[in-house]
C-alpha cells in the first residue's frame, strides 16, 4: 500500500487576506469546543467554585432566575440578575473557555458571536468602529475569550463598543485571568483610564473559578524538544500539510501579517514545525508570538520544535512584567501542543 507523503510548506511564504465579513463569520467557538456543554464540563470536586460557577452560568444562558446565596456573590447588595454580563475569572486550564462555549451553544439565539479579545479589536480595525457596531447591534450574545486591555486604544474601543451593545440589549460573557477592575494593571498607565475600566466592569457579574491547569495534569511540565533527525521524521509522518520554518523567520514574518489573519496563516495544516527556537527579548515579537500560539492551539495543531525548550521562549524579565499572565497561558499551551 502506498503512503501519502506529507506536503511541507513554509509559513513565511504565506500572505493571507481576510475580509471583515469573513472575520465576522469566523466568530464561533474553536472546533475543539463544537460540542461543549455544561453537562460535559468536568468539575473537579476539590474546587467547589467550579460547580458553583457552572450552575450560575447555566442559569445565565437559559435565562433562569439566579440563585440568591451568600459567600461568592454576596459582596454587593445589588441583585445579580441586573448585570447584563458574566465574567469568568480564573487561572489557566480550569475550563473557562469550555464554559464560555457552553454558554454560546445554550443560548437559543441565531445572532450570537464567540471570539477572542484580539478578534473583536481586529474586527474594528478592519471594518471601522461604526460599521462594527452596526454589524454586531442586535446580537443576543457576545462571548469574549481571554479579555485583555493591553493599551489605551483597546480600552477605549472595547468600553465604547460593549457599552453601545449592552444598551441595545446584547448580553455579554467573558473570560480572563484578571478581574475586570484590575484590567490594564502593569501594562499601561491604568490610573488614567480607571473611569473607562470601571464602567466596563459594572456590566459584569464576576464568577471566580479555581482549579489546576488540566493541560498539566498528565504532562511532565516540559515542552518536547527534538533533534534534527527526530524533527524531520515527525514532520514527514504528520500527513497532509506540515509547516517547516526557522523560528527567527517566523517571528519576522508575524510582524508583516496582521494578527487577525494568523488563523489563515495556518489554514489546512496538520502540524507546525519550528527550527532553532530561541528565547525572545523583544516585547512586540513576544506578543505577536502569543497571538500565533493561541490560533495554533485553537486549531488543535501539534507543534514540533528544535532548539530551546518552548517553555523558555519568554525571558524572566517578560514573565515578571505586565503581560505575565498572557505569557504563562501561552507557555501552558505550547507545552501541551508539543505533546499532542
Secondary structure elements and pairings:
Blueprint: E1 7-9, H1 20-25, H2 48-62, E2 85-90, H3 96-106, E3 112-116, H4 117-127, H5 129-136, E4 141-145, H6 152-167, E5 171-176, H7 194-201, E6 204-209, H8 214-217, H9 228-236, E7 241-246, H10 247-254, H11 262-265, E8 269-277, H12 283-298, E9 303-307, H13 316-319, H14 324-339
Parallel strand pairs: 1-7, 2-5, 2-6, 3-4, 4-5, 7-8, 8-9
InterPro entries: ATPase_AFG1-like, P-loop_NTPase
Pfam families: AFG1_ATPase
Keywords: ATP-binding, Cell cycle, Cell division, Nucleotide-binding
How would you describe the overall organization of this protein?
By secondary structure, the protein is α/β, with parallel strands linked by helices. It has two domains: 7-15 and 215-339, Rossmann fold (3-Layer(aba) Sandwich); 35-210, Rossmann fold (3-Layer(aba) Sandwich). The chain has helices spanning 20-25, 48-62, 96-106, 117-127, 129-136, 152-167, 194-201, 214-217, 228-236, 247-254, 262-265, 283-298, 316-319, 324-339, and strands at residues 7-9, 85-90, 112-116, 141-145, 171-176, 204-209, 241-246, 269-277, 303-307. Strands 3-4-5-2-6 form a five-stranded parallel beta sheet, with helices on both faces. A four-stranded parallel beta sheet has the order 1-7-8-9. Helix 12 (283-298) links the parallel strand 8 (269-277) and strand 9. The radius of gyration is 20 Å and the shape is globular. Residues 65-81 and 183-194 have low confidence and may be disordered.
Amino acid at each position: 500500500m502506498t503512503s501519502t507523503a506529507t506536503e511541507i510548506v513554509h509559513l513565511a511564504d504565506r500572505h493571507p487576506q481576510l475580509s471583515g465579513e469573513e472575520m465576522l463569520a469566523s466568530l464561533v467557538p474553536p472546533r475543539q469546543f463544537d460540542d461543549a456543554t455544561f453537562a460535559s464540563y468536568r468539575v473537579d470536586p476539590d474546587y467547589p467554585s467550579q460547580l458553583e460557577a457552572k450552575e450560575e452560568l447555566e442559569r445565565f444562558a437559559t435565562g433562569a432566575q439566579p440563585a440568591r446565596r451568600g459567600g461568592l456573590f454576596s459582596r454587593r447588595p445589588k441583585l445579580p440578575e441586573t448585570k447584563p454580563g458574566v465574567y469568568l475569572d480564573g487561572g489557566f486550564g480550569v475550563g473557562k473557555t469550555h464554559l464560555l462555549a457552553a454558554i454560546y451553544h445554550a443560548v437559543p439565539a441565531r445572532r450570537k458571536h464567540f471570539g477572542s479579545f484580539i478578534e473583536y479589536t481586529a474586527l474594528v480595525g478592519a471594518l471601522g468602529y461604526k460599521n462594527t457596531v452596526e454589524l454586531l447591534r442586535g446580537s443576543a450574545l457576545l462571548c469574549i475569550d481571554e479579555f485583555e486591555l493591553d493599551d489605551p486604544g483597546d480600552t477605549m474601543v472595547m468600553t465604547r463598543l460593549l457599552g453601545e451593545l449592552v444598551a441595545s440589549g446584547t448580553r455579554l460573557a467573558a473570560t480572563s485571568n484578571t478581574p475586570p477592575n484590575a484590567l490594564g494593571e502593569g501594562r499601561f498607565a491604568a490610573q488614567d483610564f480607571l473611569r473607562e475600566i470601571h464602567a466596563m466592569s459594572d456590566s459584569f457579574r464576576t464568577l471566580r473559578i479555581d482549579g489546576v491547569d488540566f493541560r498539566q495534569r498528565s504532562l511532565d511540565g516540559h515542552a518536547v524538544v527534538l533533534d534534527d533527525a527526530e524533527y524531520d521524521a515527525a514532520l514527514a509522518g504528520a500527513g497532509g500539510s506540515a509547516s517547516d520554518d526557522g523560528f527567527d523567520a517566523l517571528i519576522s514574518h508575524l510582524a508583516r501579517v496582521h494578527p487577525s489573519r494568523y488563523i489563515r496563516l495556518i489554514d489546512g495544516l496538520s502540524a507546525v514545525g519550528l527550527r532553532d527556537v530561541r528565547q525572545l527579548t523583544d516585547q512586540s515579537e513576544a506578543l505577536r508570538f502569543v497571538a500565533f500560539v493561541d490560533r495554533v492551539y485553537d486549531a488543535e495543531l501539534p507543534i514540533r520544535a528544535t532548539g530551546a525548550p518552548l517553555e523558555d521562549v519568554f525571558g524572566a524579565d517578560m514573565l515578571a512584567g505586565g503581560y505575565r499572565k498572557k505569557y504563562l497561558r501561552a507557555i501552558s499551551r505550547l507545552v501541551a501542543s508539543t505533546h499532542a
